[in-house]
Amino acid sequence: MQLNFTTLTRWFIYPLLAWIAFDRYVLPKLFVFDPAKVKEIANESIALYGDDSPNYNRTLLFEDLTQRLQKEYGKVVAPLYWDEWVLNTAGNAMV
Q1: 34 Ramachandran zone, left/alpha/beta (phi>0; psi -120 to 50)
Q2: Would you state the pLDDT for residue 1?
């Protein structure tokens, strides 16, 4: 096989252009959560039950946040079960 510009284009440029198009136009449509909306919902719950509010209560904060997220996103948000544990090792959470 002869290595020339056409061959390089076929093997490198076309897949790169396909990946850029996929990344820009397809992947964003697969996201479920809107970061701005999630931030708004979280800030509303924190204002009601956060550290600086007179109703400071972490349990009520998580219950309120879960209810608001379920109202906005439906069954995508799992219900809150206080009796079940979740092991999380992401972001050095175990340290």
Answers
A1: beta
A2: 57
Tell me, yes or no, if the pTM score tops 0.70: no
Work out the burial of residue 62: count CB atoms within 10 Å of its CB; fewer than 13 is exposed, 13-18 middle, 19 or more buried.
Answer: middle
Helix pair 58-73, 35-49: axis angle to 10 deg: 150
92: which 2 tokens?
């050095």
Q: Taking the CA atoms of the chain, what radius of gyration do you get in angstroms? A: 23
Mean predicted lDDT score pLDDT of the chain: 86
Residue closest to 78 by CA, chosen among 62, 94, 57, 61: 62
Token pair listed for 5: 């510009």
Please state the φ and ψ torsions of residue 59, each to the nearest 5 degrees. -65, -50
Q: How confident is the model at residue 77 (pLDDT cuts 50, 70, 90)?
A: very high
For the residues 11-21, what does the mean pLDDT come to?
A: 90
> Are 61 and 46 spatial neighbours (Cβ–Cβ below 8 Å)?
yes
